TrEMBL record:
<feature type="domain" description="Phage terminase large subunit N-terminal">
    <location>
        <begin position="20"/>
        <end position="220"/>
    </location>
</feature>
<dbReference type="InterPro" id="IPR035413">
    <property type="entry name" value="Terminase_L_C"/>
</dbReference>
<protein>
    <submittedName>
        <fullName>PBSX family phage terminase large subunit</fullName>
    </submittedName>
</protein>
<dbReference type="InterPro" id="IPR027417">
    <property type="entry name" value="P-loop_NTPase"/>
</dbReference>
<dbReference type="Pfam" id="PF04466">
    <property type="entry name" value="Terminase_3"/>
</dbReference>
<dbReference type="Pfam" id="PF17288">
    <property type="entry name" value="Terminase_3C"/>
</dbReference>
<dbReference type="InterPro" id="IPR035412">
    <property type="entry name" value="Terminase_L_N"/>
</dbReference>
<dbReference type="InterPro" id="IPR052380">
    <property type="entry name" value="Viral_DNA_packaging_terminase"/>
</dbReference>
<feature type="domain" description="Phage terminase large subunit C-terminal">
    <location>
        <begin position="253"/>
        <end position="396"/>
    </location>
</feature>
């Protein structure tokens, strides 16, 4: 059978040459995620037709549930091509060929890879959002992808938006790539189907948020500057809270279409703020909020939750549907700046590696920069702040207005404990 598939030309050119590793890096709107979802379905089809049996791995560094995986992208890509849709059996929690030769496995490289490897033959991998994958995880994965057959090898595909030249992903696959690795940069201007709505968002970022525009849209590294609010104020490290720590403190920020609904759980100890858990999703319906968050943060409903007071109707609904201890966080003119100042006053903010989106926001959250003079302005850009807002709400009882005489530390335990 011969068939024509439309795809981004740069993706086509990458796959025109043989390689064991294929890297696609770039900014938002490039279409690389949807393009590789479709390519994975084509790869699975081709191998299944050759009689190959096994699993094609769709992975991330951390994967707590299928909602956080690439499953929906893969389902959508398959559904967009009628003859692929008829070749696959797609269920609520699985995707496989109808001949049962190959199925997708959705896994976190950090915790799930060993169990999959022990059960099935891995015939290929695609890791999306790969910037934060650790070297330990890459070593484990690369050593796993050794399957090959007549005219095929198990390929490793990687897609991500670069943030740091020091990331394990950049060092391994771009700075010092193997000979059989092809690296392709794909950005919004390379996507023939770049939507006008997304272009409007791009132009707004270019005008209002120049300090992060190149990173978000052009795939450049995130340059650390004095404009970044939490530069040098946080670290990403593993830890587990102890019973003697103050907390937990829990916050929830509402979102929907473009912005995620975001929840966090954090603690205070030794003059440090410790952020241990996060949960969230874009387009999360209100009636799905409590189940979504409780599935990712255990006992979330047993402790006080402080949420955006601008949504009293949502707080009222959640109080009656799964989060009985939710309440509105107090706001006042300047409460954002006061909350940020409170967080910055800790000796350090420690973010657990499981909280990827929180760590990302702490990297991106920035002051406005005058586009003519380059001066850093006191106003904070209203972007990359949903998990940060949830953190501010969680700590709201301890935050004081700038003109309040109360000391920052010394009273928070009594005010913040349930």
């Amino acid at each position: 059978m011969r068939a024509t598939i439309e795809e981004i030309p740069k993706i086509t050119r990458n796959f025109a040459r043989p390689a064991r590793t294929r890297v696609f890096k770039g900014g938002r709107g490039s279409g690389k995620t949807r393009g590789l979802a479709l390519r994975s379905a084509l790869r699975v089809y081709q191998l299944a037709e050759r009689g190959v049996e096994g699993v094609f791995l769709a992975s991330r560094e951390h994967l707590n549930s299928l909602d956080e995986s690439s499953m929906e992208e893969i389902k959508a890509a398959i559904g967009s091509v009628p003859w692929l849709a008829s070749y696959f059996d797609i269920g609520e929690k699985y995707v496989r060929t109808k001949n049962r030769r190959i199925s997708y496995a959705f896994a976190g490289l950090r915790h799930n890879l060993d169990s999959i490897k022990s059960k099935a033959r891995i015939i290929g991998n695609w890791t999306d959002e790969a910037e934060s994958v650790s070297e330990v995880a890459w070593r484990k994965l690369v050593n796993t992808l050794r399957e090959e057959g007549d005219g095929w090898i198990a390929e490793n595909w990687i897609s991500y938006n670069p943030e740091s030249p020091e990331s394990a992903t950049h060092k391994r696959f771009v700075k010092s790539p193997a000979e059989d690795c092809i690296v392709t940069t794909v950005n919004w201007q390379d996507n023939p189907w770049f939507p006008s709505l997304l272009n409007a968002a791009r132009l707004e970022d270019q005008r209002l948020r120049p300090e992060t525009y190149e990173h978000v849209w052009e795939g450049e590294f995130l340059t650390l500057t004095d404009a970044q609010v939490f530069s040098g104020r946080y670290v990403v490290e593993e830890f587990e809270p102890e019973a003697s720590w103050d907390g937990p403190y829990q916050g929830l920020d509402f979102g929907f279409a473009q912005d995620p609904t975001a929840a966090v759980r954090c603690y205070i100890h030794d003059r440090r703020l410790w952020i241990r858990h996060e949960a969230g999703s874009v387009r999360l319906e209100l009636d799905g909020t409590a189940p979504h968050v409780k599935a990712r943060i255990s006992d979330f409903d047993r402790y006080v939750i402080r949420a955006d007071s601008a949504r009293p109707e949502s707080i009222s609904y959640l109080k009656r549907h799964g989060l009985p201890l939710i309440q509105a966080a107090e706001k006042w003119p300047g409460s954002v700046e006061d909350g940020v100042a409170f967080i910055k006053a800790f000796d350090k903010v420690v973010i657990h590696p499981d909280c990827e989106q929180t760590a990302r926001e702490f990297r991106l959250y920035s002051h406005k920069v005058d586009k003519r003079s380059g001066d850093i302005l006191p106003e904070i850009v209203d972007a990359h702040n949903h998990y940060i807002d949830a953190t501010r709400y969680a700590l709201a009882p301890m935050v004081r207005r700038r003109d309040a005489p109360m000391a920052l530390f010394g009273t928070y335990a009594a005010q913040g404990r349930r």
